[in-house]
Amino acid sequence: MLTSKQRAELKALANALEPAFQVGKGGVNDAQAAQIDDYLRVHELVKIKVLENSLLTAREAAEDIAGRISAEVVQCIGSKAVLFKRNEKEPKIKLKH
Questions:
Q1: Element (H or E) spanning 66, and its range?
Q2: What is the CATH T-level fold of the domain 4-84, as seen in this structure?
Q3: What are the backbone dihedrals phi and psi of residue 21, each rounded to the nearest 5 degrees, phi first?
Q4: Residue-wise pLDDT tens for the chain (97 aa)?
Q5: Which of 8, 24, 68, 72 has its CA at 20 to 30 Å from residue 85's CA atom?
């Protein structure tokens, strides 16, 4: 579980990120969740864009993906969501406690 200070730190890092994945009208499927999990294993932080034709909101899509891959939702603003998952073996992002 992230503290509010850690969440703020991750939000600042995510500011510069471009969305790496898109969720369309088909919603989230297992293959897409697996791709995002692989991406998070390397980068630890990902921004996702939910397209306008999607039946899900950014919050719903982010929570669905996070539940499937054991990640944490950092923030959802408009059509974008940010997810975080720590790489236990080789952490890239050093969070203050």
A1: helix 58-69
A2: Translation Initiation Factor IF3 (3.30.110)
A3: -140, 155
A4: 899 999 999 999 999 999 999 999 999 999 999 999 999 999 999 999 999 999 999 999 999 999 999 999 999 999 999 999 999 888 888 887 6
A5: 24
Q: 3-class DSSP state for residue 72?
A: strand
Residue 58 bridge partners (DSSP): none
CA distances for 77 relative to 11, 21, 31, 73, 80, angstroms: 11, 15, 24, 11, 5
Is 27:55 a contact under the CB 8 Å cutoff?
yes
**Phi and psi at residue 73, to the nearest 5°:** -80, 120
Burial class (CB in 10 A: 0-12, 13-18, 19+), 86: middle
Domain residue limits, the chain: 4-84
pLDDT given at position 97: 67
